[in-house]
Each structure stands twice: as structure tokens, then as C-alpha cells.
Amino acid sequence: MILRMIHYSNFIQGQFVESTHGNVITVINPATGEAISTIPDSSDEEVAAAVNAAEVAQPEWAALPAVARAKQLHVLADTIRAQVEPLARVITEEQGKTLPLARVEVNFTADYIDYMAEWGRRIEGEIIESDRPKENIFLFHKPIGVVAGILPWNFPFFLIARKLAPALLTGNAIVLKPSEETPNNAFEFCKLLAETEIPAGLVNMVSGSGAGAGRALTENAKVGLISFTGSVDTGSRIMQTAAQHMTRVNLELGGKAPAIVTKNADLDLATTAIQASRVINSGQVCNCAERIYVQRDVAEAFTEKLVEKMNAARFGNPLEDETVDYGPMVNQAGFDKVMALLESAVNDGAQVLCGGKRGADTSGYYIEPTVVANCTQAMDIVQSEIFGPVIPIIVFDEIDEALAMANDTEYGLTSSVFSTDINEAMNCVEALKFGETYVNREHFEAMQGYHAGWRKSGIGGADGKHGLYEFMQTQVVYLQRS
Ligand code: TXE
């Protein structure tokens, strides 16, 4: 069922601007394979026009007190809350997540904007002791100028806020480029700006391919910070481009989260959390458990419970059935990547305990909920990000063995431990080399935390005070009195 076939235009200087060259990208509903919209494949000139608009709008915005900027963010949050249902449907249609999850995403986005706006009265500088008499040293936090936000497709609406809210609150302007898989919600977001007094040019949205519009945005010398969420390969490419102008980067690049389940774990809790983590958003979440290390004493009982829970997960077209647990993979590439990892694991001796196949409805990119046992550390399925409803299991004897395998990865975003023994759990936490660790809970971060990966999972981070301050640069002032 096609909700509509629509053409979107770039949003520059507060207006939807029709592209002059006519090159478009077609957006597909991954649940049906149907075309649902077209978007501009923006040229370098169109991207430059968006950056110029941001550059012009920024100084006046930065001159406002932070609390005045915050007020407009609160208005934006309320505007989003008034449109939860239509926005959720747009997200589901182009991305494939369930409608209940899309509603959570929209509400969470509004809450996140409110949260960042609350920092309006809380940003603090420093007064530093001087070596000299009659001198004060002040450290101010200043806006960077123009921020480029390059967005992924897995939580496309929320990621707008994760970049825009801290950027605007701290006095920056922003140019966003949505993923070419999920641009519709981003252009719908731009329509909401009309309800606020956020000035024209402060927020701009240009669509296009990564190699086209994405590259043009990161190459632009007027951009002071590139905030990117996506793959390691693209993050690395962006850093290389950013090096030309010494542009700051803030990169969130996915993970390969280990979940350690010890013999002291509450197996009901562990299997519920891990199943949810693989099923939510079809397993396309950067911080969710991607590989399980389970202690031999409980391996059989754990695996039995996990298989039972994975088998119970129902998938299907999320716009036709609101009760499904998950929808399709976002696109053919995501689908192919998961199937290739499964095939190589089986060829290397792994055993598929449930699932492992394409869903019967081949009009969408559906994959059955899958548990893979007899895995070894060297397998691709244990080393590469799967990003699908598939979970590999490795059995261990001693905790040190599990910790060594958990840390044996080029990623370093999140990790988790399931153990009711607090000493054992905290010893694991101390040894785990990851930016985020969950103990006896589901795999999801809070907006007041700090979501930041180690190693190839990124540079810098998002959320909370530490994420907010990454959108500012410092100025130290030496004031010598006579
Ligand atoms: O990501 P890309 P893809 C992981 C996940 C997934 C894999 C590939 O494993 O299977 O990445 O997904 C823009 N300059 N994650 O191919 O390419 C692109 O247009 C500037 C984890 O979708 O990184 C899009 O807007 N921009 C992740 C954005 O980068 C460029 C979420 C993301 O695309 C560009 C998504 C370039 N040269 C995928 N090339 C997470 N961290 O949660 C591409 N882009």
C-alpha cells in the first residue's frame, strides 16, 4: 500500500528550493519494494548554497542569550509532539521499523530537544587562577559556526535532534544531509520549523548520495564541525576529507557489542534483554548485543531460552500489521550483508539453531530471527557488524577467557554483562574496553549519558553535558588590570 508518491525539495534559507538540474534519487519502502518518493541528488553548488545560508544566519542567532535559543527549541519539541502519528508513519514507510517503535522515536526526539534546551541556563565557563597580580583568566565556550550533520537511516528522525539540538542551543547553525534511504522524515521535519521562530537559514537540509552531497558538505571550508553517524568506512573517508581544512569531526561509527552471560546470570533477564536487542529495529542498532559469550555451566539452558524467545518474534510489513515485532532490513545491501555473514559462518562450522533464511514474503527484505551456535572468535559473524536479527553464540569456561574475546575487536562502542554476583559483574566492567557497558539491563543509552565509542567506533560522542560541549570551542581571555 503506497501512502503517497511525493517529491521533496531541498530546504535552504527557510524555503523548499527546487533543484535546477533535475537529478533525483528514488526512495523505496523496504517492506514492499515500492517507490515512495524522489529527492534531489544535490549538486556541489546546492550544498554550498545551504552552507552559505547557515553561515549568514549564525552570528545573529549566536548573539541571542542561550535561554532565548532554548525557548525556540522547546517550541520545536512541542510541534513535534503534536505530529507524532503522521511522522511515525513516514519513518516506518521508508525505514521499515514497527509503528510503535517509530512513535517512541518521535516522542524521544521531542524529549531530547527539550533536554538539550534545558542546558540554556547551565553552560558554564571557568575562571582560572593567574600567575600575575591583578589578572583574571577567563575560559569561555563559544559556538563553532556552521555544523554539518550527516545522518544514518536506522534512527533517522532522532539523529536529526541528536545533532541539531546541541548545535542550535550552543549558537551554531546547521546543514543536515539525511541518508538517501530515509530522507522523507527529514524533509517533513523541515516543515515543522515554520511553527517556530528559528530564523531562516539556521537549519538547512540537502539530500543526495554520500559520494555527492555528503562529500561536498564535508569538503566545504566554511563547515567548522562534521557530526556523523554511520559506518566505519565512511567515517574514515570523512576524516580524510576533513583533514583538508582541519575541520573538527565527531564520529559515531557502529559497534560489535559483546554480551557476557556468566553462570550467575538471571537467564530470564539475560535472554529477554538479548532477544529484544536483536529484534528491535530488525537488529539494526549500533549499541545492541552482536555476539554472546555464555559460560559453559549455563550454556544449554541459556541457549534453549534464547531460541524459544527468538522463535516467538514475529516479523512482517509494519504498516499492515502494527503488532509485528520487527520489519524488513532497510535495503538490499543490508539484507545481503547479513545473509553473507550467515553463509560464511555455516561454511566455517557454525550451527543455525533457528531461522537463518529469508522470510516467505520476498517482496520485502525480511530475515527470520536467527540464533547461531558453535561459533568461534575468528569467524566473520563474530568480528563484523551484523546489523540484523541474528545472534552468534560462543561458549567459554573461565571469565578471563570471555573478557579476552570480548575485547578482541576493532570496535569499542558498547558491551554488556549479565551476572547477579556484583563482584563478578564489576570485575568484568573494569576489564571491558568499551565506551558504554550495560549491566543486567537492556541495551539502550540515556540522553543524559555520553554515547562515545573507543577504537574504530568513533571519535567524540553524543548526549549529556559531554556531548553538548563538543559543539563549542573555547576562548581563553587574559584580563590584566592596572
Ligand atoms: O552507511 P554509511 P550505510 C553500519 C551498519 C551498516 C553499514 C552500512 O553496519 O550495515 O554501516 O550502512 C553518508 N561523505 N551503520 O552504507 O555509508 C550517507 O549518504 C559524506 C552503523 O548506510 O556510513 C549517509 O547519509 N557522507 C550506524 C551516511 O553517510 C557520506 C548507522 C551513512 O551512510 C559519504 C548506519 C561520504 N564519502 C550504518 N559516504 C550506526 N553507527 O548506528 C556516505 N555518506
What's this, in brief?
The chain is of the alpha/beta class and 482 residues long. It has helices at residues 44-63, 66-81, 84-95, 99-117, 156-169, 184-192, 210-219, 232-243, 267-279, 296-311, 332-347, 380-383, 399-407, 422-431, 464-469, and strands at 6-7, 10-12, 15-17, 24-28, 35-40, 126-128, 135-143, 146-150, 173-177, 203-205, 223-229, 248-252, 257-261, 289-295, 351-354, 370-373, 390-396, 414-418, 436-439, 458-459, 472-480.
Helices and strands, with pairings:
Layout (H helix, E strand, L loop, with lengths): L5 E2 L2 E3 L2 E3 L6 E5 L6 E6 L3 H20 L2 H16 L2 H12 L3 H19 L8 E3 L6 E9 L2 E5 L5 H14 L3 E5 L6 H9 L10 E3 L4 H10 L3 E7 L2 H12 L4 E5 L4 E5 L5 H13 L9 E7 H16 L20 H16 L3 E4 L15 E4 L6 H4 L6 E7 L2 H9 L6 E5 L3 H10 L4 E4 L18 E2 L4 H6 L2 E9 L2
Parallel strand pairs: 1-5, 8-9, 8-11, 9-10, 11-12, 13-14, 13-18, 14-17, 16-17, 18-19
Antiparallel strand pairs: 2-3, 4-5, 6-7, 7-21, 12-20, 15-16
Helix pairs in contact: 1-7, 2-4, 3-4, 3-6, 4-5, 9-10
The site of ligand TXE has 28 residues, from α7, α8 and α11.
